[in-house]
Design goal:
By secondary structure, the protein is α/β, with parallel strands linked by helices. Helix content is about 40%, strand content about 25%. It folds into two domains: about 120 residues, Rossmann fold (3-Layer(aba) Sandwich), CATH 3.40.50.2300; about 100 residues, Winged helix-like DNA-binding domain superfamily/Winged helix DNA-binding domain (Arc Repressor Mutant, subunit A). It has a five-stranded parallel beta sheet, with helices on both faces. A four-stranded mixed beta sheet has the order 10-9-8-14. It has a three-stranded antiparallel beta sheet with strand order 11-13-12. A hairpin with a 2-residue loop joins strand 4 and strand 5. It is elongated.
Length: about 230
């Protein structure tokens, strides 16, 4: 991963820590401390992803996000903020953020989400062949390959992740889709299921299932999707 990323964070220590960590992870990072510096530095032709704080010395980061979206920007946007209440998160995602994370997030989690978002932005092109999931017949058809028959649980899990194509779905949400109580659910069962699904696709079609693991969070299906009931 060697993409260009712009980081907007006004806290000096956190900005330096994030920029250093993401640089070591392979990103080319340009870090700025306020909205005016972002506008001066941001280059739509160069930056594919932005990490944006909301509480800034010269305004609100959400105003910047709305401005970018109103202008038709396809920029991948990850909000990283101290505003962690559910209404704030819902509003942030509704107004154009791709992901909304609290500042207490683990650095590895942030890096994994950025990586998944980068792959989605790079890999999903208009009119790209889709992975077809047929719910009634419980079949998965990779682009250019024959259908793969699925178990009932495999179909539920794939439907959960494919319905959120391009976004990270939490382990809790997948377990809920399976009709299980997350607090009493053995996480090793889900790990085993995902390994089995990957192996089934690899054995049947000779290609990898486009499913990324976001460590300690969940999964992201990053290819084009079609779902039939």
């Amino acid at each position: 991963m060697t993409g260009h990323l712009i980081l907007l964070e006004d806290e000096d220590i956190l900005r330096h820590e994030l920029a250093t960590f993401l640089g070591q992870a392979g990103w080319t990072v340009e870090a700025v401390a306020d909205l005016s510096a972002f506008r001066a530095c941001y280059d739509a032709a160069r930056h594919r992803i932005a990490v944006i704080d909301l509480g800034l010395p010269d305004g609100d980061g959400m105003d910047l996000i709305r401005e970018l979206r109103d202008g038709g920007s396809p920029l991948g946007i990850v909000v990283l903020t101290a505003r962690s209440a559910i209404p704030d998160r819902v509003a942030g995602l509704a107004d154009g953020a791709d992901h909304y994370l609290p500042k207490t997030s683990d650095l590895d989690e942030i890096a994994a989400i950025l990586s998944a978002l980068d792959r989605r932005l790079a890999g999903i092109q208009p009119n790209a062949p889709a992975w077809l999931l047929e719910l009634a017949s419980r079949r998965l058809t990779p682009p250019g390959h024959q259908p793969i028959h699925l178990s009932h649980q495999d179909c539920i899990v794939l439907h959960a992740v494919m319905a959120r194509q391009g976004d990270t779905i939490s382990r809790q949400d997948i377990v809920a889709a399976l009709g299980e109580d997350f607090l009493n659910y053995d996480q090793r069962r889900l790990d085993t299921q995902m390994r089995r699904l990957r192996r089934k696709v690899e054995d049947a079609a000779g290609i990898a299932l486009p499913l990324n693991t976001v460590r300690n969070v969940g999964y992201c299906f990053f290819a084009a999707v079609a779902i039939r009931t």
